[in-house]
Structures are given as structure tokens and as C-alpha cells.
Amino acid sequence: MIEHQFPVQVTWQGGRNDVGQVQGDVIEHPVSIPASLGGVGTGTNPDELLVSAAASCMTISLAATLERAHLTAAKIEMNSYGEAQFDGQRFRMNRIVHEPKIYVQDDTQQAQLEKRLSKLLTIADKNCMISNSIRGNVDIEVHPTVIVTTEH
Predict the structure, then answer these.
(1) pTM as predicted
(2) Residues 6+ apart with CB under 8 A from 54
(3) pLDDT digit of tens for each residue in the chain (152 aa)?
(4) DSSP 8-state code for residue 44
(5) How far apart are CA 33 and CA 18, in angstroms?
(6) Helix, strand, or coil here: 84?
């Protein structure tokens, strides 16, 4: 078994309404509780990072899956959102919804992709490390659109 480590460091001083810093190999960003949850809303937040991780992982996995199927997209635009709920005792992410717009070169590629899309999305989801890590705790939905690009 091959193991990889993805180190991050979070520095925090103060209480609930202060701002910390998250730093990894590439990311370096302020982090706080979102304003919508009564925090200061500076920088990013853990909820946004979770949805970002799920969305970027699914996008990369989908691009690789399409490439292996010889249906490489001209572009993928992923819009995703997470829905969280407080049940009186704890706050948790219930669902992440991905809405990829997959741009292809022509009508033929659009027809080929739409015919195989359901299976390809299942493969992409199963190859996404973040989906694999949260599956069973967070529902994942994917609602794709295939669009013929006007850019050539």
C-alpha cells in the first residue's frame, strides 16, 4: 500500500471570533468562522474548504475519466455547494451537490458523451479521494450539463 501525506498547519490565537492562518505546501490563507454562522468571515473557512476539496477532486477525476474514455472535454466548469445542518447538538455537512458544465467541441462528441455520461460520472466519483473519504457521511449528487462550445 502506498501512503501519501498532505501536511497543513493551522495557527490560531484568541477565541471564536478571531482569525487563524492555514498553511500547506501551496495554500496559505486566513481562516475563520463564516459571517453567516456568526463569525468574522475573514478568509476561508473549514466548510468552504471541504466543498472546495470535493469540487476540485471531482473535477480532476472527471477530466481524467473523460480522457481515458477518449472524450476529453474542451473545458469543465464545476459549480458546487454544500448543505450543512445543525441538529441541536452538532453541526454537520449533509450534502454536496456538483453541477459540472462539460464543454465539448461538436454535436457528435456531445451525443457520445451524453450516451455514456452516467457511467463515466460514477467512475469519476469512485476515483475521487475526497468522495471516497466522505461517502456514507455526506450525500454526493452530480447534475451535469453537456454544452457544445462556441470557442474553436
Answers:
(1) 0.93
(2) 80, 82, 96, 98, 128, 130, 131, 134, 140
(3) 889 999 999 999 999 999 999 999 999 999 999 998 899 999 999 999 999 999 999 999 999 999 999 998 999 999 999 999 988 888 899 999 999 999 999 999 999 999 999 999 999 999 999 999 999 999 999 999 999 998 65
(4) B
(5) 8
(6) strand
